[in-house]
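Re: your question from the hallway

Yes, I did run it. Sequences:
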Amino acid sequence: MSTQTLDEQYYAQLLQLQQYDFALVELTLFLDTHPNDMQALQQFNQLAQQRRQCAQQFEQQYGPLLQFGQSYSRYPWQWAQQPWPWQV
Amino acid sequence: MWIYEKKLQYPVRVSKCDPRMAKFLAEQYGGADGELAAALRYLNQRYTIPDQVIGLLTDIGTEEFAHLEMIATMIYKLTKDATPKQLEEAGLGAHFASHDSALFYNNAAGVPWTAAYIQAKGDPLADLYEDIAAEEKARATYQWLIDMTDDVDLQDSLKFLREREVVHAMRFKEAVQLIVDDREQKKVY
Amino acid sequence: MNNNQCRVYYPFVGPFDPCPPIRVKTYVVPPNQFIPFQPMNLPQYPLPEALRRGTLWPALFSPYPCPPVGKGGGDY
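Structure:
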C-alpha cells in the first residue's frame, strides 16, 4: 500500500464500509438491551452479511483490515504497510 | 481478546494546523471524562455487574477505544509538522519539552491521567449511574470543544462523538431499567 | 423529538458585573431524557445519514449548537 496513492475511490469505499459498520454498532448496542427484538436482529444479520462483502472488496484493493488471521495477506506482508487510519 | 481494525469509526478531517485546539482536545484524550477513562471504566466494571448488562459494557467500552483513536487522529493532524515555536505559542511548550510532538494521556491542562478518575463500586446501580454521568459530562465537554473551534471539518467529527455520548447514555439508562425490573428473570416464569 | 431540546434561562444581571452581561443562556436537554426505554421499530435514517448524524434513529438525534430560540430544530 505504500506506493498506492489514495484516490477518491479509496475514500468512497472506506466511507461505505464505515456506514455499514456504524449501523452494526448501533444495532449491537440496541440488541444488548433489546435481545428479543426479532426485526432488529434480522436487520443486524442482513447488514452483517452485506458488510462482509463490502469489507472483502475493500481488502482486495487496499489491504487487510484485521489481523491475527482474521484477514488474508498478499506477499509481501501487507498488514504493516502504511497508511494507518490516522494518516489518511 | 481484542482485534484491531485498521480504519477509523468515522472520518476525521481537520482544515488547518491548529496546535491550540489540539491542546484543548487532550481533555477527551486523557481527561477525567475522556475516551480513555470511559473505555477503562466500562471494561473494568464488567466483571462484577449482573450478566444481562455485561454485553452492553463490553460493546460500549470497545466503541470508546474507537473514539480514543479518533481524538488521537485529531491531535495528530492538528500538530503534525508544527514547529516548536508554534507549539509554544499554543501553550504546548511544556508538553514539547517533555514529549516532543508525542501524544500523552493528560488533560487539557497537562495533568496526567489517573485511575482515580474512574470508579468500580461493585454495585450495579452505583456503577451504571456513574456511567450515565460520565456520558453526560463527555457530551458537555464536546459541546465546549465545538464552541472553541471554527474548523467545520473538526466540528463535524466532534458532533459525531457528541451524539455517541447521547446514545450511550440512553443505553445505560436502559441498563438501569433492566437491573431495576430484573427483566430476564421475569421472562423465565 | 428533535425539537425542544434547548432550554433557556435569564441570569440575574448585577450592577457591578464587569463583563458585558449575557442575558439569555441556553442548555441542552438531549432526547435520552424523554425516552425511558427505546421502543422497538422506531423509524431509522438511511445508513449514510445515520453515520453522518451519529445515530441510526431520528428519535435519538440531538442537534448542537442549540438552534436559535423559537426556530425549532432537527438539523445541524
